[in-house]
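Worked problem 6 (solution included).
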Amino acid sequence: MGLEIKVPIGLMFTILGLLLTIFGLATSGNAEMYQRSLDININLWTGAAMLLVGIVMLATSKLKPGKEA
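Solution. The predicted structure is:
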């Protein structure tokens, strides 16, 4: 009886990462918005990283652990 926390956290990271990535893509033409972050689209890169972490967590939650003796 193990507590599997990867699925809800993976879903949270995936959904928020997807939203942040879409927002970063939609605002990529706005140079004023990204002046404070040295002209780096921080929304796009943070969203992509969160999306990747969420997908990895969901993928590893689907793997069946080996039978322990």
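Discussion: The two ends are 16 Å apart (CA to CA).
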